[in-house]
Amino acid sequence: MSTPLPKLGILAGGGVLPARLAAAVRGSGREVFVVAFEGHTDAATVRGVPHLWSRFGAAGSIIARLHAEGVGDLVFAGPVRRPSLGELLPDWRTARFLARVGSRAFGDDGLLRAVTRELEEEGFRVIGLHEILGDLLTPRGPLGARLPDEAARRDIVRGVEVARGLGALDVGQGCIVQHGIVLAVEAIEGTDAMIERAGPLHRSGQGGVLVKMRKPQQDRRLDLPTIGTATVENAAAAGLAGIAVEAGGSLVVDRAAVAAAADRLGLFVVGVEPPP
């Protein structure tokens, strides 16, 4: 008889992914406990699911509750808007953590790595979304019927180069390139805001390409680049020709729906291999 899997704790950000994850895990018979963050997690995520509402700065009470609930594994799911120190209102545990990590807290990747180490020191095992929902990983090649043409492929090559450079500096995971010109790069605002910002910068001729790549040093368990139908719709509204994301290093939420949206709106969505 196989040993049952430990209770899974979901550190839930925004969007539909945390709820989808919780439903899939519960459907498999595994117990789940969700930590929902005020101002970030959708209320629907915790409906009918054991959960705790908290703020980011309450690390002490969050960890204590996870232990009390018997959580063994933890997973990060869904985007969050990074709070300012004033919004954080750190408790003693959070303040001690921030003092210890220092400048590593400036970049998202550095901060998430430090948070993960802290959780692991508490005895939790941090796992990646793709270890639970393997079908979320982006496959190599097109997701819909359309393919990038030669001009778009050149923009993708340029975009991969720029996105990897940004990632190495722990700044962002994506950019938008049109005719070889970088229209926008992603920073703290996130992908959707970057796409909106790039719209008015659109040049005449074929639209640009949104490129999203995993940071070179990024832990695959944490904050992989993610797209969904909203990404496709926003890209179309901004006049883009398509989207390229890292094959095996990014997540596609509801692959069939993303492919259908891309075909309906006339965009390509393609998984591309990272450079060696």
Give a written overview of the molecule.
The mean pLDDT is 90. The longest helix has 19 residues, at 150-168. Helix content is 35%, strand content 20%. It is α/β, with parallel strands linked by helices and 276 residues long. The chain has a six-stranded mixed β-sheet. A five-stranded parallel β-sheet has the order 3-2-1-4-5, sandwiched between helices.
Give a quick rundown of the structure.
This protein is of the alpha/beta class and 276 residues long. The chain has 9 helices and 13 strands.
Keywords:
alpha/beta; 5-stranded parallel beta sheet; 20% strand; 6-stranded mixed beta sheet; single chain; 276 residues; 9 helices; globular
Topology:
Layout: E1 7-12, H1 17-27, E2 32-37, E3 51-54, H2 59-68, E4 71-77, H3 85-88, H4 92-101, H5 108-121, E5 125-127, E6 141-142, H6 150-168, E7 174-178, E8 181-185, H7 191-198, E9 209-212, E10 226-227, H8 229-237, E11 242-246, E12 251-252, H9 255-265, E13 268-272
Parallel strand pairs: 1-2, 1-4, 2-3, 4-5, 9-11, 10-12, 11-13
Antiparallel strand pairs: 6-13, 7-8, 7-9
Helix pairs in contact: 7-8, 8-9
Judging from the principal axes of the Cα atoms, what is the shape? Answer: globular
Note the total helix count. Answer: 9
Q: Strand sequence of the main sheet, in spatial order?
A: 6-13-11-9-7-8
Helices and strands, in N-to-C order?
EHEEHEHHHEEHEEHEEHEEHE
Oligomer: single chain
Helix content: 25-40%
Report the average pLDDT across residues: 90
Tally the beta strands.
13
Strand content: 15-25%
- Distance N to C terminus: 43 Å
Report the structural category.
alpha/beta
User: How many strands, what sense, and barrel or not for the largest sheet?
Assistant: 6 strands, mixed
The radius of gyration over CA amounts to 19 Å
Ranges where pLDDT stays below 50 over 5 or more residues in a row are none
